[in-house]
Structure formats: structure tokens, C-alpha cells
Amino acid sequence: NRDVAVYALGIGACGRDAVDEDELKYVYHENGQKSIQVLPTFSALFSVGIMMKGLDIPGLDYDPRLLLHGQQYIELYQPFPSSASLVNKSSLAGLHDKGKAAIAEIETKTYEKGSGKLLCMGRSTAFLRGAGGFSKSSQPYSYSTYPKDQIGAIEIPKSLPSAVFQDLTQPSQALLYRLSGDYNPLHSDPNIATVAGFSRPILHGLCTLGFAVRAVIKSICRGDANAVKNILGRFLLHVYPGETLITEMWLQGSRVFYQTKVKERNRAVLAGYVDLRHIPSAL
């Protein structure tokens, strides 16, 4: 339950208002920490350790410090308990040779220890710079264990959004978020950031995803995190800690398309959708 609370703070919960009635439940409960609620994007953490330690694939060499997260997909089957022991089982779901880089997809299924309940499935897509060019056939190597149409296309509507939410990341946001287990120095070490081509450490892509989905929960779900069924996020551009995030949302049936922009640079940094189990009656 401590991990859950630290994660919620890391993605900005109660960042503007310490007693926010929609978000205080993610970090505090009058009946104790074991009664707090878990944000659905918490599950995105479960494959981070595997990517950071390095994928044990013969012939595939890369520097984990320079890994870039390309996409994150999440399916939620059961509400998360506030406190539990979990078992994560990961497998290689895809591997693609892109010449100067490789794309690896790690699928992680998470079970509650003891009951054996399958809580969620996540698929992390990582862009591995310098790891491509390992296939020698005329066709670049490409491997996948799931149907190509399993993840829906992201088509941001041209109409006015159903809702818009603005949030400010803190200059120390990446240093707080990394306490949830993603210790990639790209997000904390200025020298590593320079080697990777950035002027300073950047925010974790999964942190930006957490901000965006939290905006959907607050604006569309009226604070009901359990309304979230599936999540897809595609990372388009980096975010620097301290920048302002503006998330635009379009409700179409039970799917919310969203796009997150950095206000200071007027650039889209994230796009995706959130599928809902039900539409809040207030809408």
C-alpha cells in the first residue's frame, strides 16, 4: 500500500490540492493505508524491471539507459487490492528489426498471489536504439504473438473536445516518480540525458501516461477509477519536468480518445484511448 501511495503522488495526485476530494483516496483513507484505492496505470510498472535489467535475447545488445518507451497497452480484469502480493509473468510478445534500432514488446500478466486471480495484462513497447540490424534475411525480422488488430487505431477527432484538463508537473516530478521503481538515469542524470540527445533529464513516459489517464478519470469518469477497462498510450515526444500538460478528451461511445500536449512548446507528447466499463450517470 505504500508503493501505491508513492506512485499516485508520482503521477501528480493531490499535486494542486492536498485535499482534492477525487484524489485523496489514492494516498489516504480514514481507515488506514490498506483501504486506499489504486490507480489503474499502477499496473504499467510491472514490466519496468525486466526492460531495465535487459532482455536476455541472444544477439540483441543495447544500452538500457538509452531505452525509449514507445507504447503502453493495459487490460484490467479485476480491481486492484490496496495491499497484496502479486506474481508477474512476462514474455516476449514481439521483436522487430528496424535497422538502426529494434522494437521489443514485453507482455506481462499479473496475478494475485494466493487466490491466483488474473488482475491485469500489460504490453510495453520499447524502442532500443542501436540494437537493430541483427537480421540477415531480405525481409527485416519481425515476430509477434498477438493479432495485429488487437490494439485499436488512434484517430484523434477533429471536433472540439468533450473535456480539457490542465496540470502542472513539478521540476522534481521525475525524481519522485522514479521511486516507483524506474531508476533509468535518463530521468535523473544530466550527463546521461546529454548522451541521449536531451538538454536535461526528461520525464518518464509512463509518468506522462499516468497524468493523462488521471485527467480522464477526473474529467470523464467523475473520479471513478474502477470505470477504466483498457488503456492505450502512444508516446510521441519527451516531456521536461516542470512543463504544463494539457489533456484533451473526446468521449465516443464507451471509448475516450485523448491527446496530451505540452503547453510551453505547443507540442503533442502523448495520444491514446481509454475504454470504459460504464459511462458515469453524471454525463
TrEMBL record:
GO biological process, one term: fatty acid beta-oxidation
Entry-linked Gene3D superfamilies: Hotdog Thioesterase
Origin superkingdom: Eukaryota
Coiled coil: none
Molecular function as annotated in GO: (3S)-3-hydroxyacyl-CoA dehydrogenase (NAD+) activity; 17-beta-hydroxysteroid dehydrogenase (NAD+) activity; enoyl-CoA hydratase activity
Annotated MaoC-like domain residues: 169-267
Domain spans labelled Peroxisomal multifunctional enzyme type 2-like N-terminal: 2-130
Protein name per Swiss-Prot or TrEMBL: MaoC-like domain-containing protein
